[in-house]
């Protein structure tokens, strides 16, 4: 038995990160779905330590210079989408504890995400991940239990322009086919294959995908290639659009239907915490795709949003919105040694950004469970 915790989110102010920008404004029609993007998955409470000089050493105590707590797991993607102005619906199980209550409130009241398909499960505690960031990488430790079977994704997802799935080798997610049948455009990423088989045929739901977005290591293993660009071309024979993220080198994409390719270098930033950056990249690519942008612009925008996210700590709460993007664009053009060609790469943003950008850098949401009194 479950209980619904939906409240009227319009009683609470949103995060403001979308800055009133609707990237789909010119495309909206009266009979469009209420939801732009639907997604489902597990919400974790993320506890993130940053400013570690090295990995923890056995038998010693390490002190971190920074720490934050925020909703994690599928919440990373949901928040990133919502902050980019997309109407986002999330179906997830929430723990019946303070962690679950905090995650629910942060998503619904703080970020304006529709949780009408989500439920609080009595007696079930929230999954937790501790992430430690050091030397540009991260190490994670997680704990949790599977939610009861009845808390799985709805068999009939809501009508939405798009749905985002995380494919798991050997696991069939029936909702993906239902979403595709309802007209949703399916975007998918994938995690590490613990079985070691790396068999594309084992990724149930891939056949329904419009775009598949693995990282370079995953793409090469699935295609048995030794080059991420060759892997993207091979994947484009299986899905309409294949996008392979190349880490510090940027991203490469192939449109299998047209033969078009695009490659965009990464933006050089001082990375504080990479938690959730891959989710932010997917959210940026989905936003550009739904808005009808050219392939190269979609890649550039996805890479930009991911780069802005790693400069903050806090996982999901580091996801940038249009205010942050506008602030970056305003600042980057003041650099005297800026490459004009690099600036032209992002000139497509001009017609989208808020008219008055706030000064950079911008303070984002404080990633903490919550203060007892306003600060």
Number of helices: 9
Helix content range = 25-40%
Q: Sketch the major β-sheet.
A: 8 strands, mixed
Which structural class matches the secondary elements?
alpha/beta
Strand order of the largest sheet: 4-1-9-10-11-12-13-14
What is the gyration radius calculated from CA atoms?
Answer: 20 Å
Number of strands: 14
Q: Spell the H/E element sequence.
A: EEEHEEHEEEEHEEHHEEEHHHH
Which spans have pLDDT < 50 for at least 5 consecutive residues?
A: 1-16
Termini separation comes to: 38 Å
Output mean pLDDT: 87
Which word captures the global form?
A: globular
Strand content: 15-25%
Description:
With 375 residues, this protein is α/β, with parallel strands linked by helices. The chain is 25% helix and 21% strand. The strands form 3 sheets. It has an 8-stranded mixed beta sheet, with helices on both faces. Strands 3-2-7-8 form a 4-stranded mixed beta sheet. The chain has a two-stranded parallel sheet with strand order 5-6.
Give the structure's gist in a few sentences:
The chain is α/β, with parallel strands linked by helices and 375 residues long. It has helices spanning 74-83, 98-111, 174-181, 216-223, 228-235, 277-290, 295-309, 322-332, 340-345; strands at residues 35-40, 43-50, 66-73, 88-91, 93-95, 119-121, 128-134, 137-143, 160-167, 185-190, 209-212, 241-245, 251-255, 261-264.
